[in-house]
Amino acid sequence: MSSKYLCLLLSAGILLKPFSAEKRNDNSDPETNDRRGKQFSFFQVIQFPNEACNGTGTGSGTCYTGQECTTRNGASIGPCANGFGVCCAFSISCGGTSAENLTVFTDANIPTGMGDCTVRICPANDNICQLRLDFDRFQISGPSTITTSVTQIQNGQAGALGTENSEVSQCNMDRFEVSSGSGVRPPIICGLNTGQHVFVDADSVCNALSFQFGPTTTMRTFQIRVTQYACDSPNLAPSGCTQFFTNPSGTVQTFNFGNGHLADQNQVMCVRQTQNSCRICWTTAMAIDFDVSGSATSGIGGGVGPTLSGVTSCCAPNTAGNNLQGLDCLSLPLAENAAGTANARSRFCGRKAGLSSVAVINLTICSRSSPFRAVFRSNGFEVTDSVVTPVLATSESTNKDNGVKLIYFQDSVN
Ligand SMILES: *[C@@H]1O[C@H](CO)[C@@H](O)[C@H](O)[C@H]1NC(C)=O
Ligand SMILES: *[C@@H]1O[C@H](CO)[C@@H](O)[C@H](O)[C@H]1NC(C)=O
Ligand SMILES: *[C@@H]1O[C@H](CO)[C@@H](O)[C@H](O)[C@H]1NC(C)=O
Prior knowledge:
CATH topology of the largest domain: Jelly Rolls
Helix content: under 10%
Largest sheet: 7 strands, antiparallel
CATH superfamily of the largest domain: Spermadhesin, CUB domain
Number of domains: 2
Bound molecules: 2-acetamido-2-deoxy-beta-D-glucopyranose
Oligomer: single chain
Shape: globular
């Protein structure tokens, strides 16, 4: 961080003292000389770095002088640097630009109908590598629920042959996206994502944070806190991670969890490896916490694999190039079971049966692959099965798959 410094002219009392000291000048006495050195300054220099600070209330900001804070269009939210500075908070809304750490992007002037709302976050200095966006509040329209078939997909590509698909799960009404220059960028999201966060590589120019709003009356509300991390920060996420969870144990979930997972995701949920832990283990609290493609009720993850329509693994087309269960899955690289032996599959899909083999709903799956991570992948469409009349009740599109919510813990024993 480039530190700026503050010169403060202290009270007249201090100013007067050096003059009286001057009269007692005695170079032979080192103690007096030293004392004189301290006193003989017209200016008392108070230096403090422009570090992150907390306000007296809930917000956070950067420590600046009162005047600098005003010049930079910030707002003082409390004292810092022993009262010599103010904790200066920055907030922007649609159309705004900020190069300040901990800037808050608010919904202060969003359009009520169709329109967009974009802000630009520029590096606070020339050594910024990542941005962390915390969704303190995030609610916009959810994904499409239109189940009529709009295209046919074969081998993941739209084409004349193949499986009938609908636009269910696509963020067609409202959407949020982040630009990142040439770096890895988070997937486009919509729906309810309060409490979630994403990391993005900092663009050397600026990153655009952009909402596009469709013609809807759904309540929209958001507050996004943007933290800038220097290239040597201990808080950087490992490269390629969409998210980085630093608690030794906790929960992770897919975007818009519980209200339908989203299309076109590649959500890489990474967890910081604690000292002494050699693997991470994942499980589900409830059967409905794992709900990704597949037939209506069967648990088909956990190494068993889908058995319908000749599909033998998740996130892979069947031999005909189709996949009547969709092409969405959770990937746990180099999966092993709790006892430490290799699991037959590293990709999991299926519905409402936990992270499961058919027999064991509350299966625990572990992995030693680093960085510790679970990856949710989804394609652009949900299978409609309209080839069959009526549309199968088991099809992806009619089931609004919740997505995935996982409990994780780290293990130093196995
Ligand atoms: C601000 O408060 C948070 C949460 O209480 C704390 O983790 C953080 O260390 C504080 N930051 C500073 C600069 O004091
Ligand atoms: C931004 O603030 C966070 C505290 O929330 C701090 O960890 C980080 O180092 C700050 N970034 C810069 C570039 O000062
Ligand atoms: C699964 O395991 C978790 C954690 O041990 C526990 O809280 C939960 O009740 C279990 N759920 C089921 C369905 O057995």
